Amino acid sequence: MGEKGQDALPPPVLPLPPAPPEAKVVFGDALERIVAFAELLALEGEKRGLIGPRELPIIWDRHLINSAAVARFIDPGERVADVGSGAGFPGIVLAIMRPDVELHLIETMERRCAWLNDVVEELGLKNVKVHRGRAEELKLRHGFDVVTARAVAAIDKLARWTVPLLGAKGRLVLLKGRRASEELEKARKVLRKLGIVESEVEEVLMPGSEDPTYVVVSRK
What we know:
This protein is about 35% helix and about 20% strand. It has 8 helices and 7 strands. Helix 3 (about 30-45) runs antiparallel to helix 5 and helix 7 (about 155-160) crosses helix 8 (about 180-195).
């Protein structure tokens, strides 16, 4: 086979790393569906432009277990919007872990919405609705108890899109990086103008990790 034929070959599918022992601690009875979600990502993630080629080896710690950190900040029966759902972090992970909450996944890109709908159908998730569009433009029924987001934008910009979706006593639960405190301080003026009365950075040490996951919780 010539070089042209070799170039046309599809890239190999990398093997999915097995679930680490701490995954059972984090996900409990939901682990089987989480593994199924991870397998879908391994098969389709890079091809659909959802995760990069270097992401699969670290998918458990960096993405799945990291996304699970938001679950403890959400109460049973709450109505939750996940803005910029992308590959499904944290929205799909949260939907699997918490069948007792109603999830609305908001994503602007058509191909990512198609992926999210495929995952919802494949995993039989009954508590999820996918919406295509910008959070600030969608005509959703407002009054969400919680709005989540991960790796979408800085807090000051993100707040302008997400706070209007909250109910009277709603809260933002945002997964952020190590500069979460610095980012929050820069956003406090904007948050106050939007009606946020209290914000703090919660450091969550997930099983198997030496570094905390940072969750910014802001309340109206």
